[in-house]
């Protein structure tokens, strides 16, 4: 499988809303309160919210394709767009998702390779992210790729306060 990466543009907002909702629902709906979850989805992945994020010069979204099929996406934050760490030497990987039907095909590893290439090209010292403490599959994935835990922060799904582990990969 040869992955193709394309930076998202404002005209991609509808496709970004769809893949954002679909992948987040597949990953987390079953583990959350239905009302809190639906409220979160409607707010976090609304067209207006994602269009605003796309317009932020400190955020970058990429679509990931297998030939013509959209199979995933990721979002990077720099500078003031970072949600927790605000270090000019870092980039935050805020979102990285693969469509459920394509999971287990090493697409995540291919995406991470592309991300690391971009981070190095931008001259940053490290990449960091938050991952839900109850997502052992994702935690193992990141640890296999050299990420190490350096802290925690709260993450809210509606009114439900959850805990994300903060993981870092020094370049």
From TrEMBL:
Gene3D superfamilies: 3.40.630.30. Keywords: Acyltransferase, Transferase. It is an enzyme of class 2 (transferase). It comes from Flagellimonas marina. It comes from the Bacteria. Residues 3-171 form the N-acetyltransferase domain. PROSITE patterns: GNAT. InterPro entries: Acyl_CoA_acyltransferase, GNAT_dom, N-term/lysine_N-AcTrnsfr. Its EC number is 2.3.1.-. CDD domains: NAT_SF. GO terms for molecular function: acyltransferase activity. This is GNAT family N-acetyltransferase.
């Amino acid at each position: 499988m040869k992955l193709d990466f394309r930076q998202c543009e404002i005209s991609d907002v509808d496709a970004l809303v769809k893949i954002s909702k679909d992948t987040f629902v597949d990953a987390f709906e079953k583990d959350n309160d239905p009302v809190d979850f639906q409220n979160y989805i409607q707010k976090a992945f609304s067209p207006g919210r994602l269009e605003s994020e796309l317009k932020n010069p400190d955020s970058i979204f990429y679509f990931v394709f297998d030939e013509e099929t959209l199979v995933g996406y990721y979002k990077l934050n720099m500078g003031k767009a970072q949600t927790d760490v605000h270090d000019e030497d870092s980039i935050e990987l805020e979102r990285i998702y693969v469509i459920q039907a394509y999971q287990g095909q090493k697409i995540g590893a291919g995406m991470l390779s592309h991300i690391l290439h971009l981070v190095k090209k931008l001259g940053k010292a490290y990449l960091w992210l938050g991952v839900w403490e109850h997502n052992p599959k994702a935690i193992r994935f990141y640890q296999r790729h050299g990420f190490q835990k350096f802290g925690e922060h709260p993450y809210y799904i509606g009114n439900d306060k959850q805990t994300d582990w903060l993981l870092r990969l020094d370049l």
